[in-house]
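Example record

The entry below shows one chain as it appears in the dataset: sequence first, then structure tokens.
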Amino acid sequence: MAVGVLGYGPGHDRLYLSRDEGETWLDRSATLPYKSSLDRYSIPWAIRISRHHPDHMSAGLTEGFFRTIDGGEHWAEQNTGLAMPHFRVPYITTIVTALATSAQQPDLILVGTSNDGIYRSRDAGKTWQFASAPSGNLVSLAAAENAGKIIAASSGGIYSLEGGTWTPTTMLIGQLMSSVMQVAISPHNPQLLLCSVHDASESKYTFKSTDAGKTWQAGIANWGGNWVFDPVDTNLIFMTSGRVSRDQGDSWQPLPIPASPSFPTDLAVHPTDNKILYLLRRDGSIDRSLDQGATWSQIRAGMDSNQTIIRIDPRQPSTLYLGGTRLYRSEDAGQSWTYLPFHDDISGIVCCSHNQEFFIATLREGVWRSADAGNSFTKMDGLPSDRIVALAFAVQQQRKKLFAGTQGAGVYQCDLGPVLAAKDEPRIPFRYVSAQNYPNPFNTGTTIRYSLPRAGLAELAIYNTRGEEVYAFPATHQLEGRHEARWEGKDQAGSQVASGVYVYHLKMGGQVQVRKMVLVH
């Protein structure tokens, strides 16, 4: 039997051990780590005694995990894999606040931490592995749909889901008196992340990572609002508060949005024509730009109290959805709106890019699914909590996945089934889509991605500004779905071409799409 007593002031925190069912007690406090700055010994938040060896004890402390095999006379620190790298601070010892052991497997230990998740050891605490979904209250989900990557931001920090396993990034700030407010991931490059951090002094900062969260660039002042990556231009990022970056977030310039007493809450970019922008304000008013934000005109007057989400249907870009305290749909690019009766606040909207399924998350009533563009809804069961704060969609291993972030109960995924061939999809896009090449501008090579709504002969060629063909990819019969081609900046003979502007043509079924790219040596 062991008892930890936490008192007030130096000398009042103690650890006692009894070997005779509480008749007598041994003071083991002085065998624990001593905190000179506080003039006291560190007393365990949690302690477990082995059922197989009573002298073997595990303790969770502010300094991490400690273990003794001699009844508390000597303690060994065992934090390998438990002390995670934190941004700004190389390592912060994880605070262990809870312990669980197995009666059948004496070497199996689980520990709960203060804002850093749950960790598992299979060797009696010698090494540790991260074993939980994002800890704390979830605040944001972001997805690189085609890369199958999910990023989650919680009160503890930012976590990445790949291959079915959550991995902490170095943006773990739960112990630094800070909180992550939002996270975003580039649809063109899943290594590029942005996050917003709110520190103890009430200041907000934006941070950028180009290696999927391993390292972060120094924070800059955050003007508030959400980030929206341009679906065509790989360098362009918008901020709803009126900022734009043309260099993947390295620098920001003002975006001339109209003055209004109502604060902007979201922004949407047309999936194929990135000159068309929609800016939503809290009162439900919407401004539209046809020249990438240079000028704006109002297409919807303010008539609501708290509208926070605007989404464009990627398969039918003239269809828009508006969510918050109410749910609306427009089928004419925002000129007119239909109220879709729904009885709860909307916290997330996902328009599936593979068919016309449509999902909404609510703050109190879970996740709902519509197969008819919002005319009717069916509740999706199976979540442990109906308090949903974020929703995201991605394709992983050719299967469609919906991710729901709950308030305090973790992140959950729903398998929506395989990505079907065109002949099996009830509704297919009316045209193919060529995304902007990445990177652009580029130096040594670039990748051109495109999506075909049906199988057929596809032709892709590179031209210079004089209209001369520089390089032609083999014309092949290709299946429906997403494809990519790599150009190394060379002509058909294999010689390096000069720096400059080049144009690639994608031709299929009598249609041609053209996009520009810049080669810089």
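Notes for this example: DSSP finds no helices and 48 strands in the chain. Residues 91 and 264 are 38 Å apart (CA to CA).
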